[in-house]
């Protein structure tokens, strides 16, 4: 089976604005105003959508990607991955276009998520910036649980943002967001988001968003309990800067601490480049390329294309001139 190129998969009616930069990047027709996320090679459905499977990727033959993987896991994921993780891809990849500042929010650690909501994963995440912009990450000072709860109940957005580190991030830099860390993305940022495969968010502000946070911002637990998932400890500026890549280097683009969750590599092709075998999600960021599998040309791909490469395809060669981000699960056995 050749690697599979996916069309946009943008769940509609999300609670924040976005979508035009995804359409432009993909050279697609304009999306709706509240379609800010493109879920790529997704085996995960949106929160509350277990019946409709909204968010899950459908293959050209009509099957869900998740079902295809379950039917032949060693082909898709490889024996080492299956031995370590079963049929779980361990990945959720998105394009994200923020046309308004995203709420201050956090995602739980997997241990907390397992205990409190029965989820298999938490939600560590990382951002690969396709455009420059501003982000907020972590607290500049220790905050008690009671203080944070008060900020949320009063919807004191400036009080929250004022306690957080603000970062100017360049295109091609990567930001790692540990589970439990408060964060927000400013308006105008366009990025690739890599996450554990769950749709779990604890919202701390929701002014100006199409959501009732008092009702839907706390995973059904109430904020008293939900906010126990948030790391309220101070991060120094140095702590935060170590979560951000220092330059647009070629190769592995994540700090070591992120590798228990996923891996991300920036690959530049000037002529040809071999990608090692293994399940991978690819986003073509620049250029025009040929993809060769088993010595034969399989695909032409260019800027804006997103695709999945199964383990069973073996080593894949890219020829031409361009730039690709390659996202992989954590290493199996």
Automatic annotation (TrEMBL):
| InterPro entries registered for this protein in UniProt | Carb_Metab_Reg_Kinase/Isom, MPI_cupin_dom, RmlC-like_jellyroll, RmlC_Cupin_sf
Which controlled-vocabulary keywords does the entry list?
A: Isomerase, Metal-binding, Zinc
The GO terms this record gives for MF are: isomerase activity; metal ion binding
Task: List, for all copies, the residue spans of the domain called Mannose-6-phosphate isomerase cupin.
Answer: 258-328
Superkingdom, according to UniProt? Answer: Eukaryota
- What name appears for this protein in its UniProt entry? Mannose-6-phosphate isomerase ManA
């Amino acid at each position: 089976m050749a690697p599979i190129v996916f069309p946009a998969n943008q769940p509609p009616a999300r609670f924040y604005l976005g979508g035009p930069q995804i359409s432009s990047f993909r050279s697609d027709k304009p999306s709706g105003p509240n379609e800010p996320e493109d879920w790529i090679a997704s085996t995960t459905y949106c929160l509350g959508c277990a019946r409709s499977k909204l968010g899950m990727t459908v293959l050209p033959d009509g099957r869900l990607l998740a079902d295809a993987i379950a039917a032949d896991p060693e082909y898709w994921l490889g024996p080492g991955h299956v031995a370590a993780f079963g049929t779980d891809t361990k990945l959720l990849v998105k394009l994200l276009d923020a046309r308004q500042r995203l709420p201050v929010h956090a995602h739980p650690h997997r241990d907390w998520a397992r205990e409190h909501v029965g989820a298999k994963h938490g939600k560590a995440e990382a951002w690969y910036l396709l455009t420059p912009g501003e982000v907020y990450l972590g607290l500049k000072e220790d905050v008690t649980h009671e203080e944070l709860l008060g900020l949320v109940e009063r919807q004191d957005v400036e009080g929250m943002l004022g306690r957080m580190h603000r970062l100017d991030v360049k295109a091609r830099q990567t930001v790692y967001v540990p589970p439990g860390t408060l964060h927000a993305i400013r308006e105008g940022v366009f990025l690739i988001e890599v996450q554990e495969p769950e749709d779990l968010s604890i919202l701390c502000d929701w002014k100006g968003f199409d959501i009732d946070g008092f009702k839907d911002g706390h995973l059904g637990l109430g904020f008293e309990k939900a906010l126990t998932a948030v790391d309220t400890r101070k991060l120094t500026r140095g702590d935060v800067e170590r979560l951000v890549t220092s330059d647009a280097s070629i190769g592995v683009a994540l700090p070591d601490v992120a590798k228990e969750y996923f891996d991300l590599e920036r690959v530049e092709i000037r002529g040809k480049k071999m990608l090692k075998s293994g399940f991978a999600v690819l986003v073509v960021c620049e250029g025009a390329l040929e993809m060769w599998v088993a010595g034969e040309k399989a695909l032409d791909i260019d800027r804006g294309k997103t695709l999945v490469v199964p383990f069973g395809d073996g080593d894949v060669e890219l020829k031409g001139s361009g730039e690709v981000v390659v996202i992989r699960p954590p290493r199996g056995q």
